[in-house]
Amino acid sequence: MAEPEARDTDDTAAASGPALTSDEVREQVIRLAFDGDHERYAQFLATLREAIPPDVTVILRGSAVTGVRWHTNIPFDADGPGTSDLDLTLVSGDMVKLFDVHYIPGLHTAPLSDAHPDASATLHPLRSALCAIARRPVNIQATSNLLQFVRDVVMNQPYFLMVEGEASR
What we know:
Blueprint: E1 6-7, H1 10-16, H2 22-33, H3 38-51, E2 57-61, H4 63-66, E3 86-91, H5 93-96, E4 102-104, E5 108-109, H6 124-134, E6 138-143, H7 145-154, E7 159-163
Parallel strand pairs: 3-6
Antiparallel strand pairs: 1-7, 2-3, 2-7, 4-5
């Protein structure tokens, strides 16, 4: 299986210094989001893989990747341990169907989060399990391959590839 990778962008470089390699980003994610605990990170990935179909790609966005909040440059967990959330995106049109709240119907969902607890009843157990492992809020949204392409290539938004779906290999 291919190793997770990061998309290095100008935003990532600006937020965290020079562009980071996949290994560096993974280590930063583990350090920031999992208190340096590689076993918890591995458990988080295993829980994701057990819960999602093999063709779904899972990416992590936000301050766990860049080290700082977008627009404010406030460091990850600046308000104390476990206060910053993890923003997961499930990339697959079929995953979008599991959501009841959409930003763009059929293409991009609102995140299942404290702010949108009704976004996906189906994914509540997964979110609860991931929050317990990460010991922090985990937000889960879904997007189509087309929207992910736009966010990646056109908008140049940084992300870290946590689970590569079979269709992406």
